[in-house]
Amino acid sequence: MRQRHRKGYVQKHNLEDKPLKGSSQANTINIALAGNPNVGKSVIFNQLTGLSQTIGNWPGKTVERKEGQLEFLGFHFNIVDLPGIYSLSTYSLEEIVSREYIVSEEVDVIINVIDATNLERNLFFTFQLLELEVPVILAINQCDILDKRNRSIDFKRMEEIFKLPVIPCVAIHGKGVHQLLEEAIELSVYHHPHQHYLKKGKRMHEHLSHAHRTQELYTKEWTMHLRPKKSFQFPDLSSLLKFGKEVEGKIEYLISEISQFESYFSQFNYPGRFLAIKLLEDDNVVNSFFKKNESTRYLLNIAEDFRKELEEFHGEDIHTIISSEIYNKIHKIIRLVLISEKKEERKKSLSDKLDQITTHPFWGYVILILILVGTYFFTFEIGNLLGGYLEEVYGMWSVEIYGMYGADPLWVKLLWDGVVGGVFGAIGGVLVYVIPFFLIMEILQDSGYLPRAAFLLDKFMHFLGVHGKTIIPMILGFGCNVPACAGCRIMETRREKKISVALTSLIPCSAVLTVVMGLVGRFLGPIYVGLLFLINFVVIIIFGKVLNKTMPGKCTELIMEMHEYRAPNTKVILKQTWNRSKEFIFKAMPIIIILGIVLELLLMFNLLEPINLFLSPITFILGLPLICGIFLIYGIIRKELTLVLLQDLAQSLGMTLPMLLTPLQMFVFSLVTMLYIPCFATIIIIARETNWKYAIKIALLEVGVAIVIGALVYWGGTFLLSLL
Amino acid sequence: MIESILKNIQGKDQRGSSLIKCLTECEKDEIISVIKVDTGKKAKQRLSNLGIVPGAKLVKCRSAPLKGPLEVKIKGSSLVLGRGIASKIFVKCSEEQCQYI
Ligand SMILES: Nc1nc2c(ncn2[C@@H]2O[C@H](COP(=O)(O)OP(=O)(O)OP(=O)(O)O)[C@@H](O)[C@H]2O)c(=O)[nH]1
Ligand SMILES: [Mg+2]
Questions:
Q1: Is B22 on the interface with A (CB under 8 A)?
Q2: Which sign, positive or negative, has the C-alpha torsion A140, A142, A144, A146?
């Protein structure tokens, strides 16, 4: 009965960009999903919009605001997925941007997604959100896990306390997510909260769904009542939000002072109480509001006196005082709403046991290495099996085609060698490695292993000038450097971001993996693959060390939430694996095919030689055959192109790879592909996350390093071989 | 001022291990409560947002080898703290447990 249309179009903006106002339709409701990291915001977003934001079990996946749309009950919804944050202070850029966004005109209703199993910490954010006095719906997510722990939440009681709609959800199974929208409609139509549990009589959406025949009429009527957020009557929560006597007294004083300048402060959209609290907290963004206006400046001094007084009285700094007060209130609420069915001690769960091994001071590292090595072996075995099979098929078909039409006509060259060969090359050389590899990466992400790796390697990462959290984007970098470098935003300081991005861009991604596996793995064996990775890691360590030494500033300390292990959700894993593979199929494949054809043409018209001649100094230093030059250029576009196209070329020359390259050359070729430059897309992301100067510096450094090391290996190897 | 009080208590405690210590010196699985967080301003802000404030109860779960970070359970979830920060968080044995000793 419910009508739901998904529209798959997405608008993505940088955080700095002015967000677009959603469609100007009259029946549009703009919703923002806000909350702590890893609570399930993106799961809800995906459920609602049908889009595919990355989800996984570790904090900090969503680093950029993302927008999606849907139609529901006759309304048009604009939904925005925000990065997870712990507070609305000024600790990170995300926090500032999020709070400005939340109070802005662009959002009508905020859905505060709360992890039911971690109520205490999540409610801290809720309290901050309430101070903004915006329409909020509390979505209590992951109720299935709470159930498993024999606990429950008294949702009715919670509504009584917060005076706002409270909706239990199991987002991963889509439970409760559409109820959120129904509540959002009511909030924006009634302008004051109608609680879900406390409501009496018929609710609006029931009217709607019962009268679905005349729904349009209803919708029209309701649409007329839609009002901007400003007209929302925020419930009276003063008794809930009140601080202790000393603090509250000062805040009340500040509020009354601020209210004199209402017309000035209204431009910032923040309510007076929020401004007062943040002024007391010495929040530099709010301070700047007061500094801007001559007549409000005196309040800065008053706030400072108040702050000093409080800090002296409590012997703590102001953030600690205020946070403690909030946590005390939360503690009382928790006792009222959280019900433990059985008092017995929770048994050691599977997650605890797994944790014990995977973070063990010895076995933890063994497992970490096993996972990394195991992933490669798994990918290698499967990829080789399928790849070999495909190659045989292609070979057989080629024989037949050549037999029928001869190998020389132009169309055979272009269509068969170029297009079909390209498709086979892409599938046999790339996809067969990439899909199993992505599958494992997704399992690692969704199980919650990544933070454990960060925990184990924190100490080690300090040598490279960053803390353990960097390990997370680095591991993701094995899949693809592009999102991984974007993910470096989870690092707290600029310096750490810069180092993390550089280190991540040196991680051999799945495209490099296909080159290494398809060349060295196939013809030289796994030991040499290991050797390649070893060299790569040594380079990463040296890079990190150098950056750490040369960049001003110091490494900060790790503070990270570590969520429990969770059985990975099969649907999520398969979907995300498919999404990432799809990218390869629809982005890489056309490029491979087109460049394959270009290559055939260049070859036919003898244009390859001048290009290769131009690059000959480099190929000479590296000891590679002249013909490899062009592929190193292709590799900048996408790394897997180096090998796929080389293979293409070999085929059309009627040769095999071992005829083209000596074993040592294969090794050097792979090594250079591994190191020589981040691919184009990665360079752009690095520039976006840092700046162009830095991105180019990193790229050039990597080219230099690759040439030096490649040459050393080649000439060293030649020398050693001559001794034998 | 607080520091001097801390020292006083430490000095007067004659029985067994000193009552106040930093997080890194704690035993595993000991229930402890936070006395004072003595990190830089920024870290203090974050820690207080995460619930590490004086009076908060927590349990130390494990630490990574070679002076790596530690994992503590607080407010029903796990936090990983770098060693440098942990050594600036002062705690004492929580009452509940001290009674047993
Ligand atoms: N069992 C269960 N797991 C859930 C539920 N909702 C989300 N999850 C899991 O929780 C994890 C985090 O979900 P995300 O949607 O990625 O979290 P997020 O809030 O977007 O996190 P950030 O983007 O990092 O801020 C994923 O592993 C989900 O599979 C739920 O209702 N039940
Ligand atoms: Mg997310």
A1: no
A2: negative
Number of domains in chain A: 3
Cite the DSSP H helix spans in A584-640: 589-604, 608-614, 616-621, 629-637
Q: Which of B2, B51, B80 sits opposite A560 (nearest CB)?
A: B80
- Distance, CA of A654 to CA of A652 (rounded, Å): 5
Is the Cβ–Cβ distance between B24 and A557 less than 8 Å?
no
Q: Are residues A291 and A420 in the same domain?
A: no
Q: Tell me: do A289 and A406 sit in the same domain.
A: no
Q: What contacts A411, CB < 8 A, 6 or more positions away?
A: none
pLDDT (tens digit per residue) in A531-554: 999 999 999 999 899 988 888 888
**The tokens 């130390």 sit on which residue?**
B60
Q: How many helices (H) and strands (E) does chain A have?
A: 37, 10
Q: What is the CATH architecture assignment of B2-93?
A: Roll (2.30)
Q: Which residue has the tokens 């170029």?
A: A418
Please compute the mean of the pLDDT values over residues A491-513 and round it to a whole number.
Answer: 89
Q: Which of A39, A145, A175, A573 to mutate to test the pocket of ligand 1 (most atoms within 8 A of CB)?
A: A39
Q: A703 CB contacts (<8 Å, ≥6 apart)?
A: A676, A677
Q: Which domain holds residue A522?
A: 363-552+574-723
Residue where one domain finishes, among candidates A231, A253, A277? A231
A629-637 and A589-604 are packed helices; what angle lies between their axes, rounded to 10 degrees? Answer: 150
pTM score of the predicted model = 0.84
The answer to whether the CB of B93 falls within 8 A of the CB of B19 is yes
A347 part of a folded domain: no
Whether the Cβ atoms of residue B22 and residue B70 lie closer than 8 Å to each other: no
